[in-house]
């Protein structure tokens, strides 16, 4: 397989397009975000402990506090290990308000939710990932059985005390001496983080996940079939510096010098534009429809123009097999993560469902991102999850239409009131007593009818007022605070 990575640096935001065997497989843009990126490490400050959820809110310096569960605390895992795998102490036995805590972002802030955090840190390298205080040695699933055994044995001699390590696929072609050198470099990086955390007052950023160029070099340092082409001389020189320790990769980095722009030469713009469209045509005339919600991504498979020349069963199976391959490619191309539901064309035979699942698994095996296939449900839809490492391409490149979110339809008043209720539920453990919500007339009526249940469920005093709109059903949470603060503000604005 030949891989070509095109990096467009001529605009304010770097844009990376990866081709494998001349087919676009991954699109990535360097995000201009003030939010904590996945992989960042902070010295945070515990703001609030939530015994009912066995979790805590941690200030990491952003507009929203991060969230950490008891099971993601090293102190809890250590106590659990000491008890032979059993540990039932509450989170308050391990952290308290005001404590400083080393944490890493697992899932970035999204919508009204703060970042998901873990205290089980990971320091990534090209071949290894260092796991401080993890007592765990793991190897890539892509290694052979003999290779796995070899590197597990080597790992036991490499790590000391309670630490752990992961051997990435690239480890296979490295010598023990090279891996030993990389491992101790990662340990030293961690030691410096801890040292900085002891000196500086929390919250403070200790480790910033690398930009797109640094991560690119780290991930492809030992991939012999990868060519990197960049269009900016300054970034070209920086790439060469980053690749200095990896001569074989450095030799495959080049600067585009043609009169035609790099994007135009490789027709990159068309690829990006197409990847934002909800419809994807399959080679046999069938199609996919990709819809995004806050909770999940839903993919619908349709026969459309394809009727087939065989029996209905064979036609459906053929279409679903083709769709499985395309869906695997689209998930990677568009950076879609989280819960994914696929509505394949209905198959009545379990044998056909197994065939489609096997085909799906085969194509997903090429994806560097972790995926878990849960299979077909009783309702006949296919459920899976894909690790959400960053915002999807759609989230990064677009913003919602103010009126309809780009769907061409307005949500009903009942649906909008349900959304309002669900959002208010997410604030039940926040550090305030009341909230004020404004709603359009029909949404107001639905919420007013359920106000007592909502207050009981959220443990908040809810102030609800009606506001005129231009026809769309909507709501807006105006303020959080004490009962007195909100009462006084409503009185002032009347």
Automatic annotation (TrEMBL):
Species annotation: Fictibacillus macauensis ZFHKF-1
GO CC entries: cytoplasm
Pfam families, per database record: RNase_E_G, S1
GO terms of biological process kind: rRNA processing
GO terms of molecular function: hydrolase activity; metal ion binding; RNA binding; RNA nuclease activity
Domain S1 motif per the UniProt entry, residue ranges: 39-120
Domain of life, source organism: Bacteria
Protein name: Ribonuclease, Rne/Rng family protein
